[in-house]
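ok so I'm stuck.
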Amino acid sequence: MSDVLDEYGMLETMRQPELDAFKARGVPPLALAEPDALCRDTVVFLEGGRFEFKRWADDVSGATGAVIILVRSGLDYAMDLVAWTPGTDRLASWLGYAGMLGEGHAASARIAEGLKVHRSPLTWLQSSRRGVVIVDPRRAAPILRNVGPIEAEDHAHARELRATLAEPPIRIILPAGSVAA
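replied:
not stuck anymore, here's the structure
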């Protein structure tokens, strides 16, 4: 999607103090730059797990600085941008296409039995972007169901994942005037 790469090209690069802060928190330097560099910008978080860049927003109240992460598909095309505020771990998708950070690698071959699902982009970066971080459970669930077992960080995280990824019940309706059997 050229819109995604066009917008990504307009983003600010991370400043040295920000890079140093990530390094101090155990993030390997290459995880900040590869496969695509982390960037920064000012965003406005919206309802429904979405965000808008301040420069395009009609209402800029609540604008905040965020780390911007380019999300690639399994076919390696730029599909979306995700905003993350490290202080609150808030995540949101720009276009609403991204289900997970690391989504393009979810179905890749791996040595470990399960696909690691991280609670936070920080632990994902600390692991050199191995695994995924859920951005939108509704979009992530079908992908995660198809990749085999997933690995949680701990028991509490496993419970969170079970609740988050539970299939929504199917809505069943009856024709008007139906009589119970």
